[in-house]
Amino acid sequence: MELGKVQQAAVACFAQRGFAATGIRELGSAVGLNSATLYHYVGGKEDLLLGIMNDCLSAMISGAKQALDGSTDPVRQLALLVAFHVGFTATNPSTARVTEYEMRALSPAARKQMQALRDAYEQLFADALQAGERQGSFSTADLGIARLALMEMGTGVSHWYRPDGRLSLAEVQLNFISLAMRILAVPDEFPLPPQQLPVPQVIASEPTSKD
Amino acid sequence: MELGKVQQAAVACFAQRGFAATGIRELGSAVGLNSATLYHYVGGKEDLLLGIMNDCLSAMISGAKQALDGSTDPVRQLALLVAFHVGFTATNPSTARVTEYEMRALSPAARKQMQALRDAYEQLFADALQAGERQGSFSTADLGIARLALMEMGTGVSHWYRPDGRLSLAEVQLNFISLAMRILAVPDEFPLPPQQLPVPQVIASEPTSKD
Amino acid sequence: MELGKVQQAAVACFAQRGFAATGIRELGSAVGLNSATLYHYVGGKEDLLLGIMNDCLSAMISGAKQALDGSTDPVRQLALLVAFHVGFTATNPSTARVTEYEMRALSPAARKQMQALRDAYEQLFADALQAGERQGSFSTADLGIARLALMEMGTGVSHWYRPDGRLSLAEVQLNFISLAMRILAVPDEFPLPPQQLPVPQVIASEPTSKD
Amino acid sequence: MELGKVQQAAVACFAQRGFAATGIRELGSAVGLNSATLYHYVGGKEDLLLGIMNDCLSAMISGAKQALDGSTDPVRQLALLVAFHVGFTATNPSTARVTEYEMRALSPAARKQMQALRDAYEQLFADALQAGERQGSFSTADLGIARLALMEMGTGVSHWYRPDGRLSLAEVQLNFISLAMRILAVPDEFPLPPQQLPVPQVIASEPTSKD
DNA sequence: CATGAATGAGAGTTCATTCAT
DNA sequence: TATGAATGAACTCTCATTCAT
After folding, report:
1. Which of C33-42, C73-82, C190-199, D19-28 comes out lowest in average pLDDT?
2. A187, C8, C148, D43: which could form a disulfide with C207 (CB 3.0–4.6 Å)?
């Protein structure tokens, strides 16, 4: 029995019922463990959540940074960020949702840490947008709103994307790049060839099936 | 002491800490009432939530339908819907968030009812989009994604809009109409004069200040 | 609205669900009264029970004493007592049962009072038995056991007697006299002509129908 | 700490104060356990009662059947049944009383189960009585009343029998056999030698002392 | 590595009772 | 006479957590 299995079960439960509504015994029986045994793998309920969120946000930041390496052009960078964000969210929907929703369940100290990571991640988008606007590539009434709208859109993917759905992951990514370009009034040529789309990784806490 | 006050306190708590993490005593003391007294006004914790969500979704549906009356042109209708959605969400951010987030906290029977209302609301958007596409006003790779992205964007407003913020409500509404038009590739003239923007109502359960 | 109605409703509930399991609101709605209004008629839940039991035991004692007046012969007196006891229990089954079962629900002080009444009632039987034995009319291995058995038997009538049942009240009374005579080894002639059977009264707290 | 101890404490409390009036904390402290710990041994308050009643009624049925094996003569069978009933009740007075009194505290489903057991037990008496009557051994005005009176008498033993009292258990048993024979007008020779009296067992839920 | 037993705290809910109206 | 509002205390039950085994 490894920590990953526990995290997967936790994420599955937290995504479905919420952190506060999920009992520690429930988690235990989901992995076939006595509730007391869980305390050998995780230091407590909050520690479990904190570990999951920390892994998730770290993966998002490092993944986004890696995606950014694909270009120095702000337009392409934004496209890469959007594609990564959508990709990550679609690949790790439960973990991403838990990470977003359950920030409030953390104690103040832990929340501050996680919020800092979240801010760092969002700053990557803000930077690309600002760079693009400075060089005149983007045109929008309010850059702040555009950024928030872009991120919210991408995050929303976790609500509906299914790997076996109508659209492939790459299609969804390209689609969202297209939406982003429109929002920013970038002329409608794809700034990114499909083979350059960031390929997201499944992280350890993401449950295999959403049942 | 009226039901509205109780609902407001409940929404404030539920939005901040979540339904499951909010105790009934906490709610009581938030309105200066003994926990037992709450049961004079409310049949139970879930009934309280259910009442709030039902009022909210009903207001959203009737408000959206009323907004739709402003025009028969799908493009303008979509603009009106977006403006209403953003307006409602910005005006009732806590209630809207609770209504969206806490669906999972409901018992299966109640959840089905509320989900039906939510579906009815979203269908209004789907209908306008489809009508517009049929008449060739919209151009997008995938209409489904576009709708989801639009709604998610609008819902996200509850996360950041402040009445005393940098932008007025009307500005935000117009901004989102503009985003929507870009997403749907409608040529960039505002389809709606500002004085035709739907003016959203504050519903009873929305707390006055977000303290 | 009179006290009697409240007592009847109370007895009906107490007999069915028990004193502790019956709520004051339940009683109120059974007579169409707000729970607070009940406090105009009765000083509290225990006072209500106490009043019922006091009335019942008083009626039993005075009824038994009156029955005793029918003869000075211990054998006939015992027959009269048995007939009265059975008659009273069959006529006021719910009140009699509540009076017997719920002694334990009383506070110590009140219990002592009621127990004293109960003891006085039972003493009437003990006296008749002793008198009969002294004059050699009864023959039994243990007079104490005989008395307890006799009373228990009679009390049990409340469990099964129905006014519209197979046997009339007089038949049941005669039957129990016969049983008593056998238990005490009195030769088998009826010591009591049917027209001398004590006719029991319905007391105020006895509910009309047992629904 | 075993289930039996918990049952004993429960029976002691239920017999004294009644099921509804007994709190779960009260039970816990009666066995020196935290109220939460009780739920390791018992699934809930009603489960606890149900278990006790089920054990008791099962023991009564099997004990009575075993007693019946002592003879094929209905008269002796009835004597054996009466002796067993009195013996069981005197040996397990609290459990027997709780089992009889608290049927009403059960939920409808559970009550039906227990009532069926109770009916099966009483049927054993009804069968013996009927068999005896068919062969002309019994003479009574009404067999139904006789049976009810017999059982009620025996059950009443729980109210007054004390192991250290004036009469030994065997004496009480013989006494009740004698009463039964008189009630049924069987000529007065003891149908049962004392050494054939059924010896009742103490069941697990019966508290050791009635303090 | 794993667990049953144990617990204090707290959950949602109902209680009998009071009181101003 | 009647009631809605209010409350402290208690209810049954579940929680996260600890610890000896």
Report:
1. C190-199
2. C8
Q: Which CATH homologous superfamily contains domain D1-43?
A: Homeodomain-like (1.10.10.60)
What's the gap in Å between the CA of C174 and the closest CA on chain D? 10
Q: Are D2 and D23 in contact (CB under 8 A)?
A: no
Please state whether strand E lies within 7 Å of residue D178 at its CB atom.
Answer: no
**Chain segment C111-158, per-residue pLDDT in tens:** 999 999 999 999 999 999 999 999 999 999 899 999 999 999 999 999
d(CA A98, CA A205): 11
Q: At what angle do helices C74-91 and C143-160 cross, to 10 degrees?
A: 30
Considering the entire predicted model, what is its pTM? 0.92
The predicted pLDDT at position D141 comes to 87
First-to-last alpha carbon distance for chain C, in angstroms, is 21
D33 closest-nt by C1' vs CA? E6
Distance CA B198, CA B70 (A): 9
For A38-67, the pLDDT digits (tens) are 999 999 999 999 999 999 999 999 999 999
User: Nearest by CB to D178, which of C104, C141, C159?
Assistant: C141
Rounded Cα distance between B112 and C54, Å, is 55
Residues D107-133 have pLDDT tens digits of: 999 999 999 999 999 999 999 999 999
Instruction: Quickly tell me which residue has 């496209």 as its tokens.
Output: A79
Q: Comparing C-alpha atoms, which of C155, C14, C150, C5 is closest to residue C90?
A: C155
Domain chopping of chain D, boundaries: 1-43, 50-196
User: So what's the pLDDT on residue D211?
Assistant: 47
Degrees to nearest 5, angle at CA B78 with B72 and B79: 105
The CATH T-level fold of domain D50-196 is Tetracycline Repressor; domain 2 (1.10.357)
Specify whether the CB–CB gap between B78 and B140 falls below 8 A.
no
Residues D69-107: tens digit of each pLDDT: 999 999 999 999 999 999 999 999 999 999 999 999 999
Distance CA(D209)–CA(B119), nearest Å, equals: 65
Compute the nearest-CA separation of D179 from chain C (Å). 6
Four-way CATH pick for B49-196: 3.40.50.2300, 3.40.50.1820, 1.10.357.10, 1.20.120.1200: 1.10.357.10
- Give the helix, strand, coil percentages of chain D, each rounded to 5: 70, 0, 30
> Which pLDDT value is given to residue A171?
93
Partner-chain contact D18 C153, CB within 8 Å: no
Report the nearest residue to nucleotide E2, CA vs C1': A37
Across the interface, whether the CB atoms of A20 and B16 are under 8 A apart is answered: no
Count interface pairs C-D at CB distance under 8 A.
81
Give the minimum alpha-carbon distance from C191 to chain D in angstroms, rounded to a whole number: 16
Q: Is the pLDDT of residue A189 over 90?
A: no
> Cβ(A56)–Cβ(A92) under 8 Å?
yes
Nearest nucleotide relative to A27: CA against C1':
F16
Q: Which CATH class is domain A51-196?
A: mainly alpha
Around Cβ A1, how many Cβ atoms within 10 Å? 12
Contact status, residue A91 vs residue A207, Cβ threshold 8 Å = no
Q: What is the pLDDT of residues C26-49, one digit of tens each?
A: 999 999 999 999 999 999 999 999
